[in-house]
């Protein structure tokens, strides 16, 4: 199977869907002539032309709102946010308009829009550029939220997201863009709302998503080799809809849960997961649920310290050992 | 998608388009048949009687939330929407009852929506501020000041993308012009030559703050900063509204050009019914407008002077509008509320179409 990067996987998904559906439009800051701020859309302008690949001004409220309006009339815009951090200036368009218009119209209007871009810390860009808003987004019924961790998942999930008739928020990661993984040459889809067990284990369930999956897999290997502990790593892949069943099956097997997320702890995705696990699998738990989150402060700039603010393999390892102690 | 800026000395876009001296002589009005002239009047009357009936229901606590009445502004929505062709689209803010009736929505579904009933146009899920009728090219009904303006620009983008010769009218109040999203939409529309008319319904007050206390400069002139055409007219005369809007709509459809149009109007009621309306304007101001520029009275006088309608004919139209409004209130009263189970319907397309659902997992949480 060919090895391609996470960046290429997303690009291939865009290209295949642009090819398949003439109503798909890719729009955002620097997506066309500049070939993408992170080169995700490189070459798409040359292949599909300026009608399909559209550079916008730095005007997120304007162009995201424009995309929402266009989607109501049958266009399928795939909007790039250069950073998901910039969603705050388009918050009204995303979470008042895209999320609510179907409901407020009694189901008469659909918004088949995808908003995608990177959402992560770890690149020393400070608090304004390091937001991970998947919890905020998922708090709004009406939208779907996807956070892929591998090239395979990124491609299959993005293709599903573009075909989805509901608004989908697709959160990528700049640090993963260069990561390689196996991706089939033939077409495939990964359905939204289906978790993936990235490593099987019996002693501990690490429930995670996004780049934290990569950290958790590293930690799981150390747990296995140095401590004889068998950790299962469950990658949620999608936050909403949520595949809680796969999580609960893992809990029923291991009876111990560590949640790892690049999220501030208060009202995080992990908070919701913890509630659901205790509510639906209380008798299966042999220990309180633990979690590794972003240390609760705005994102620090200082490069070596930012590593410690975010989940990392050492923090996951330590938390796992504490949980099993 | 960039374009070369036009020379400052010869910039037709920067010059205002004024309505013709006699709007009756505008082709779009000259071609109106007698029945069409009566229909414009009838629609304005129906909007007013509908809202007066809604106000009584609100005062009787049959309606929750806010009720932003359009009374005094009827000529704007009716004039603009009477020009709509197959591919023309409308979006507006929360003062949306007039636009809904002007595009042809029925009083029953509108009144029932105010009553929060399952027979409402949005099944009781939207309320007064959130009327929609996509089958009539009416895209709401939006609650956040200015938030609908980028959406309207997106409707125009979709028209252009699909090669359809239509235009979008994005209505807003005079208070919306200071929102950033409006300016972002102006820029995108002008930059990409989108067929959208930004219609500022200037009733003089953004809630309780007068125009001079909230906005610098003349509102439609801001279009010039974006190299966009603009126009301005007195909204009390529905023919004047039609004459001016026809020019811009034709230009948008034929040349895919945006514009900003300010239509001066007035609301007789407070910002919403909850507004006591006694702190920021004098009663005499309202009375003066009502006496001299009431849009229904203006047209009524013209129709009688032209021999199109008799006073008895006016009375018949008025009585029919009152009866239709009363019947709508009875329909709303008799209709069922949505159920608790209905709360979670119409959230996701996929949840409402389980046979076609592609995703897995839980969509709703408890």
- Bin the strand percentage of chain A: 15-25%
Low-confidence stretches of chain A: none
Nearest-integer average pLDDT of chain A = 98
Annotated CATH homologous superfamily of chain B: Thiamin diphosphate (ThDP)-binding fold, Pyr/PP domains
- Give me the Rg of chain A, rounded: 19 Å
Shape of chain A: globular
Architecture overview:
- The complex is a heterodimer of chains A (325) and B (366).
- In chain A, 38% of the residues lie in helices and 17% in strands.
- Chain A has 325 residues and is of the alpha/beta class.
- Chain A has 2 domains: 3-182, 3-Layer(aba) Sandwich (Rossmann fold); 196-324, Rossmann fold (3-Layer(aba) Sandwich), CATH 3.40.50.920.
- In chain A, strands 3-2-4-5-7-6-12 form a 7-stranded mixed beta sheet, sandwiched between helices. A 5-stranded mixed beta sheet of chain A has the order 9-11-10-13-14, sandwiched between helices. A two-stranded antiparallel sheet of chain A has the order 1-8.
- In chain A, helix 1 runs parallel beside helix 7 and helix 8 (211-227) crosses helix 12.
- With 366 residues, chain B is of the alpha/beta class.
- Chain B has helices spanning 27-30, 34-59, 74-81, 97-102, 107-114, 148-161, 180-191, 211-214, 238-255, 283-293, 295-305, 311-334, 349-352, and strands at residues 16-17, 89-92, 138-141, 168-173, 196-202, 205-206, 209-210, 229-234, 259-264.
- The model of chain B is unreliable at 1-12 (pLDDT under 50).
- At the A-B interface, helix 3, helix 4 and helix 5 of A face strand 3, helix 6, helix 7 and helix 13 of B.
């Amino acid at each position: 199977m060919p090895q391609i990067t996470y960046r290429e996987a997303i690009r291939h998904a865009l290209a295949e869907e642009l090819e398949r559906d003439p109503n798909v439009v890719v729009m955002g800051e620097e997506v066309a002539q500049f070939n993408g701020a992170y080169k995700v859309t490189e070459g798409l302008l040359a292949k599909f032309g300026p009608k399909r690949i559209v550079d916008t001004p730095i005007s997120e409220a304007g162009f995201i709102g424009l995309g929402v309006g266009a989607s109501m009339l049958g266009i399928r815009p795939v909007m790039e946010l250069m950073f998901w951090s910039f969603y705050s200036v388009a918050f009204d368009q995303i979470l008042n308009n895209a999320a609510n218009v179907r409901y407020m119209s009694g189901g008469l209007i659909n918004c088949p829009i995808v908003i995608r871009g990177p959402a992560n810390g770890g690149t020393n860009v400070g608090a304004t550029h390091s937001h991970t808003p998947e919890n905020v987004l998922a708090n709004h019924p009406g939208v779907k939220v996807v956070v892929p961790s591998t090239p395979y998942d990124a491609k299959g999930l993005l293709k599903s997201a573009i075909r989805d008739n509901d608004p989908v928020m697709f959160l990528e990661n700049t640090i993963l863009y260069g990561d390689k993984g196996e991706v089939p040459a033939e077409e495939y889809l990964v359905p939204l709302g289906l978790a993936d067990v990235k490593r099987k284990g019996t002693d501990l369930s690490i429930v995670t998503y996004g780049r934290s999956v990569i950290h958790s897999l590293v930690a799981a290997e150390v747990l296995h080799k140095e401590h004889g502990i068998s950790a299962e790593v469950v990658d949620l892949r999608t936050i909403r809809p949520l595949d809680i069943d796969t999580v609960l099956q893992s809990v029923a097997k291991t009876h111990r849960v560590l949640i790892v997320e690049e999220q501030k702890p208060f009202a995080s995705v992990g908070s919701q997961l913890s509630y659901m696990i205790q509510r639906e699998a209380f008798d299966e738990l042999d220990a309180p649920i633990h979690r590794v989150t972003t240390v609760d402060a705005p994102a620090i700039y200082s490069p070596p310290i930012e590593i410690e603010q975010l989940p990392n393999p050492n923090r996951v390892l330590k938390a796992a050992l504490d949980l099993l102690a | 998608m960039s374009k070369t800026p036009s020379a400052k000395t010869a910039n037709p876009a920067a010059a205002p388009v004024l309505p013709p001296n006699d709007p009756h002589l505008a082709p779009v009005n000259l071609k109106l048949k007698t029945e069409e002239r009566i229909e414009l009047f009838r629609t304005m009357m129906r909007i007013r009687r509908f809202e007066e009936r809604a106000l009584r229901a609100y005062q009787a606590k049959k309606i929750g939330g806010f009720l932003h009445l359009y009374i005094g502004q009827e000529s704007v929505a009716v004039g603009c929407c009477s020009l709509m062709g197959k591919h023309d689209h409308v979006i507006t803010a929360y003062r949306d009852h007039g636009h809904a009736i002007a595009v042809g929505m029925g009083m029953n579904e509108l009144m029932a929506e105010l009553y929060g009933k399952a027979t409402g146009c949005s099944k009781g899920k939207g309320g007064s501020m959130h009327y929609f009728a996509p089958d009539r090219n009416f895209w709401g009904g939006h609650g956040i000041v200015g938030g609908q303006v980028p959406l309207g620009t997106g409707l125009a983008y979709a028209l252009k993308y699909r090669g359809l010769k239509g235009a979008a009218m994005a209505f807003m109040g005079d208070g919306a012009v200071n929102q950033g999203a409006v300016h972002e939409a102006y820029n995108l529309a002008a930059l990409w030559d989108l067929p959208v008319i930004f219609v500022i319904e200037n009733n003089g007050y953004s809630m309780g703050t007068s125009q001079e206390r909230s906005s610098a400069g003349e509102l439609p002139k801001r279009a010039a900063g974006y190299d966009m055409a603009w126009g301005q007219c007195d909204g009390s005369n529905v023919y004047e509204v039609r004459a001016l809007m026809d020019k811009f709509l034709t230009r948008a459809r034929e040349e895919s050009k945006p514009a900003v149009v300010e239509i001066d109007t007035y609301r007789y009621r407070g910002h919403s019914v909850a507004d006591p309306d006694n702190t920021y304007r004098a009663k005499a101001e309202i009375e003066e407008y009502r006496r001299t520029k009431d849009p229904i009275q203006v047209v009524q006088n013209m129709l009688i002077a032209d021999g199109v309608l008799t006073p008895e004919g006016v009375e018949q139209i008025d009585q029919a509008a009152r009866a239709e409004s009363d019947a709508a209130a009875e329909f709303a009263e008799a209709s069922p509320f949505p159920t608790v189970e209905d709360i979670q319907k119409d959230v996701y397309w996929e949840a409402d179409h389980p046979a076609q659902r592609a995703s897995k997992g839980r969509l709703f949480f408890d």
